[in-house]
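Late entry, evening session. Most of the bench is empty. Finally got around to the prediction I had been postponing all week. Sequence below, unchanged from the version circulated by S.P.
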Amino acid sequence: MNHQRAIVDLLYEGYAGRKDHRVAPTVGLIRDRGVVVVVDPGMVPSPAAILDPLSALGLAAEDVTDVVFSHHHPDHTLSAALFVHAAFHDHWATYRHDVWQDRDAEGFKISANVSLIRVPGHSNEDIATLASTEDGLVVFTHAWWTAAGPAHDPYASDTEALSRSRVRILGLAPRLIVPGHGPWFEPTRDTPF
């Protein structure tokens, strides 16, 4: 089947704030015309938590062409080494093997239907990954931990910037938001900003 838009899946549904001190990011997958992007491959119970769902979709770690870090907190980056052939993207560069290529994330296109924007707030370097799908825009971002927020991110580097970033994302009219630590959700007028 020849898709004109990106296809989005969740590889692992994240969580935070548990009494047992466990934390994991929501790990996303975007496929777009030969490009295979993993978003936020961070702390998970084991590599199988990412690799098994990837395999169920007919893909191996070697098939991943790109990895995006929404920010550089360890809970969003620690499993990156699973993808040895990928290009890695963050707020200011693309990295592949020993090549560091400077570029701003704002407006950078990974593929025809996948791009990056700056959305500071949780950290000063936060970026969001935008995927244009047949059903509408899907935004991968740590501007929200879950659908409920929290309304006030306890670890935000800049709460005013976070609010502006949330307003910016909501202004894009996303069909779905994939937050930092929970299931994807449809934004509503009750989505905290």
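Two things to note before I forget:
The CA atoms of residues 34 and 139 lie 20 Å apart.
The first strand starts at residue 7 and ends at 12.
Will write this up properly tomorrow.
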